[in-house]
Amino acid sequence: MQFVQTRGNDKNRPEAVSFSSALLNPNASFGGLYVPETLPDMGIVFLSEYLNSDYKHLAFDLLQKFEIDIDDDLLWEALDRYDHFDNSNNPVPVVKIEEDVWVSELYHGPTRAFKDMALQPFGVILSALARQHNEEYLIMAATSGDTGPATLETFKNKPNVQVACLYPDGGTSDVQRLQMVTEEADNLKVIGIHGNFDDAQQALKSLLGSEIFREELAGKGIRLSAANSVNFGRIIFQIIYHVHSYLELVRTGEIGLGDEVYLVVPSGNFGNALGAYYAKKAGLPIRKILIASNVNNILTDLIRTGVYDIRDRRLILTESPAMDILKSSNVERVLFDKFGSERTRELMETLNETGVYRLSAEETRVLQEDFAASYCTDAEGEAFIAEYIEKGYLMDPHTATCIKAYRTLREEPIPAILYSTAEWTKFSTTVAKAMGLDVHGDKEALNAISAHLNVPVPGQIHALFDKRIVHSTVVEKTHIKEEMLTFL
Ligand SMILES: *Cc1c(COP(=O)(O)O)cnc(C)c1O
To answer: CATH number for the domain including 249?
Structure first.
């Protein structure tokens, strides 16, 4: 299958490219993104064949249906990364928390957040492709806390790839910072920035946009790629778990094959929700995708009103930091799918120039056929965390935003699958606060929650506090380039 561009073609590139090409060079014409030309059929016939399949076989066959130009051996090697999740037979457990409500837990990988679902196999493929092409790649990431650890973890010691990760010093949880600064491998560089996540992201953007920097890299024979969800190589792995979660409900007899469900997705850059959208379009019986946000509720506004307006908005720091975002990149792929490349380019250019775009009433209605949206404040989220602890289920603050969306947006009494995108251990101070515990820092919070609720802290998290710090660089954002060039 070929991949086409959301904003049309500038004639400097091919009209359509292969999967591997879109993965290595994710930037498309006019600042657009790559998307699959068509979607395979994942309707009832397909689903019925996979009722007894394990995660990896479902994944393999589903990826095959996209006709991607990746050898079978390499694809299996990539999928074998799921063997390192908590339960190698089922990397994504789906847990019933009350009548009609299930939580699909996407955080059972090495860094305890859902980024592992895609980045673990993605890292294997990118590195192997780079080696096959005899090319050297640099992946740069700015992180608010989850992308960084997952990117470092997947690429550590992998040939032909180097990773530089920028994080806001003081802007992540202790666990997230330790996951990065204790990651030891020659091909990894972690740099703290004096400033917030926006500063880190701006610094990265200006570096990536700098001709001089690119030339300096080219001089060293290094190419740039990206491992964030603008890369379709990540999105493709985020379609699978939606299909798997649905099948789990059928398998356990909770629903019949073909019954419709709601999917409730805590959203930031909209990669997870986009995977759900593609699954729905391909035939998975989904009534609607309910988008959960925090008070950075740009997606709620868009889906309710058709207006995407960032003119008077400032980023608000919340207790669900992985969803603190104003420009949500993957919405563009939905716009393309619904309204075509010409309209998408027009909308995205208007957003860049004026800070706002407006869908027509008809376009908004079309968007609302698949999506509804709601947002959750920190106080509401804490209350949900406390409420469900009472009911026997422990969730992190991102997952808690799903409860609000479920309660406000569910129109019909059909089952819902909520996605849990992080383990409570990554955001333990917020969970402790919700429980009314008086603690300082992650270590105290982890121990207090573990003792109170009699839940274990997983080994990967526990071990972090005794590991050696290998990356201690914290710099002004003006010094990032120097640091980078020294590293390379
Ligand atoms: C990345 C992340 C999200 C947001 O996912 P998107 O695909 O960017 O919408 C939500 N929760 C957690 C914990 C995350 O790490």
So the answer is: 3.40.50.1100
Ligand 1 atom closest to Cα of residue 146? 15
Q: Is 144 in the pocket of ligand 1 (CB under 6 A)?
A: no
Residue 271 Cα to ligand 1 middle (Å)? 8
Asked if 457 contacts 411 with a C-beta cutoff of 8 angstroms, the reply is no
270 lines ligand 1 (CB under 6 A): yes
Domain with 87 in it: 79-113+233-466
Residues found in the chain: 488
Distances (CA, A) of 85 to 55, 79, 191: 12, 11, 28
pLDDT tens-digit map of 9-31: 999 999 999 999 999 999 899 99
* Residue type at 451 in one-letter notation: A
**Is 358 contained in some domain?**
yes
In a domain, 145, yes or no: no
Number of domains in the chain: 1
Is the Cβ atom of 384 under 6 angstroms away from ligand 1? no
C-beta atoms surrounding 453 within 10 Å:
13
Residue type, 168: P
Per-residue confidence band for 209, with pLDDT thresholds at 50, 70 and 90? confident
CB 138, CB 164: distance < 8 Å? yes
Which ligand 1 atom sits nearest the alpha carbon of residue 115?
Answer: 15
Q: What is the pLDDT of residues 381-427, one digit of tens each?
A: 999 999 999 999 999 999 999 999 999 999 999 999 999 999 999 99
What the block records as the tokens of 469 is 């710090």
Residue 323 lies in a domain: yes
CA 401 to ligand 1 center in whole angstroms: 12
Q: Ligand 1 pocket: which of 33, 272, 296 to mutate (most atoms <8 Å of CB)?
A: 272
Give the confidence band of 201 by pLDDT, cuts at 50, 70, 90. confident
Identify whether 43 is part of a domain: no
